[in-house]
Amino acid sequence: MSEAMRLRAEYGPIPQDALEAAAWWHELLDEADGDIDIAAQFDAWLEASADHDAAWRRVTRAWEGASQAAADPAVLAHRRRALAPRPHYARMAAVAAGLCLATALAAFAVTGLHMGAPAPGEAVQTAQAVPGEFVTSLGQRSTVVLDDGSRVELNTASRIIVSMEGVERHVRLAEGQALFDVAADPARPFVVEAGNRRITALGTVFDVRVGDAEPSVQVTMLEGLTRVERARTAPPVDGAGEEPSFELSGGEQLIVRPAAAPQRREVDAARVTSWRHGWLVFENEPLSEAVAEMNRYARRNIVLDSPGLADLRVSGVFTAGRSELFIEALQSAYNLRVARTEADYIVLARAE
Q1: Taking the domain 123-267, which CATH number applies?
Q2: GO molecular function, one example (predicted)?
Q3: What is the pLDDT of residues 213-253, one digit of tens each?
Q4: Which of 29, 68, 140, 291 could form an S-S bond across to 136 if both were Cys, CB 3.0 to 4.6 Å?
Q5: Which of 3.55.50.30, 1.20.1560.10, 3.30.530.20, 2.30.29.30 would CATH assign to domain 3-113+278-350?
Q6: Does the reported pTM lie above 0.70?
């Protein structure tokens, strides 16, 4: 089988919608890397209709307008993973997400933001002489520099309470999510309490998130080693014996939920912590989960109002707090419409 035949079989039929087809061709041509047969087939498709030409111009303009952001290694890595070989249904979800990513990146470039730069509302704070409480509002990110040189990056709607006195350095994550870059000091352990968990580290980088709707705790390791155990102040689980502790290393994640055994797994830590740069990265995730994550950063929430929408799979890189761009991408890729707009929510439904 020729390379052209293999790629065409892998990508499946050309979508009927011109815009989806343009995104399909954009990803296929990128992977074909100059294949003559693929290029000839694309030329035939492009010349077949003025709608094809207009759709192609729209997709290429989106990518060209976002070229600086799209060239970032982190974005390219996420995009490559989303387009890795997989079953046909997942491949098509990723192709559709190519349009989502182009739309999001173009709008991202227009706003003047780029990976690693402070976003509007982001601030750097220095811990006061008397450590206390640090808070971010909805959509805000903030970096706190502690007295020992450790850095804490707060995500949207988060709150920490800091105490650097005594034999250990102590931070309580009361709400939201934070990334901890811990300055090494073997004589004084660095302890984070979140929900009913206690996370201890000597010198490491890790992310902690507490649940919004349920008392869950998620710990993701980027570098080093931490120990996660039940907090000393937390009551024991009814009917359970002594709860085990977990040692996590880079690339591992622990999720603790009520009435469930702790779940330990390997993850892409860069994807989990992409919020630090103002990005949200989804890789073949249910639309319901992607919407819930987008809603964490927005005052006007997205509501799904058609059967089956929640189970659609989404891949792409989007700007945190820019729900309108996310909605536009979904409308283009999945034929959705805004069915209703209120002051605090937007209803998405299938187009008639």
Answers
A1: 2.60.120.1440
A2: sigma factor antagonist activity
A3: 778 999 999 999 999 999 876 555 544 456 789 999 999 99
A4: 140
A5: 3.55.50.30
A6: no
